[in-house]
Structures are given as C-alpha cells and as structure tokens.
Fold this protein.
Amino acid sequence: MPGFRIGKNVAAIALAMLFVAGCGTVQHKVSLEQGYRVQPGTKVVVGSVKNTTGQSFDIDIEKMLGDALTQTLKDRNLYWTSDPAPKLVLSADIVEYAKGDAFKRWLMPGYGATALVVRATLTDTNDRKVGAVEAKRTVEAGGGYTIGAWESVFRDVAGDVVSDLEKQVKQAP
C-alpha cells in the first residue's frame, strides 16, 4: 500500500535523525536575590571564571567559558564597557566538565557524553551578591553531527546564561 510505505519512510527518517542529531540535557536559570530589581539598561561584564571540578584538562576551560560569555554578551548588546550604564559582574565556577567523544556516543548513547555545568554569581558595583545563575548542557547521544561538542558546549551554555540575563534586563521597570 502506498500510504503504508510513506509511514515507514517517515519512521525511517525520524530514526535516522535520532542517530545523527545530538541528544542531551539543557537546564538553566537565573535567580535574583529577594527584593533586588535589575535597573533598566543594565549591562554585564564577565568577572572571574574558575575550574572547580578538581580535574585538569588539555584545554583551557576557564578561558573558553569566559570568552564565550563575553562574546555572547557583546553579540546581544549586554556587554558593559565603561559607559555610564548600570553594571553587574558575572563570575562563574565550572563545577563539571566532560570532554566526551562523538564516536563513543555513536556507539552507545550515554557513553562518551559531553557535559558542562556552571554555577555563577551576579554582583553589583558594591560587590554585593544580587543573583545566581545555574546552567547545564550535555550531549549524550549522536554521531558525526556531535563532533566538536566538547567546544560548542561552552557557546551553548553561554547562550543559555545570557538569554536568561537578557530576559531579566528587559523586564526591568
């Protein structure tokens, strides 16, 4: 039956997409201290970025996250330079990082996963904590499409964090 073949083809395409696409976890949120309100026009500068995983890596994960956050803030016109705009400082701790391996993910989902977990604080110009940021991304399945996830996960997490900050700034009274 022709209709039956179309259904089989659609199922085959969906299954093929599952094998080439990266599947994983995405979680992120910004929590502001009770009573704190973001001022209109607030900009953000990246403070310290620390590796608190207790592990050493063959890449500079602190620089990769710091650069990704800075670039994303610039791209979204939220980066503080020296203008008179209100400023927040975003300081981040990398609490978990796994470089992962695309070939292993292709062999068996979950095996060779790439993961990045970041916890950050937002401080005002008086060095008072005004908020916290948590972000997590994993790439747990996929094949060739996920090659380079060890690097792109930093840009993805930075995008998540900055999107949440952008919402807070846009909601400012």
Summary: Residues 22-170 form a domain with the Rossmann fold fold (CATH 3.40.50).
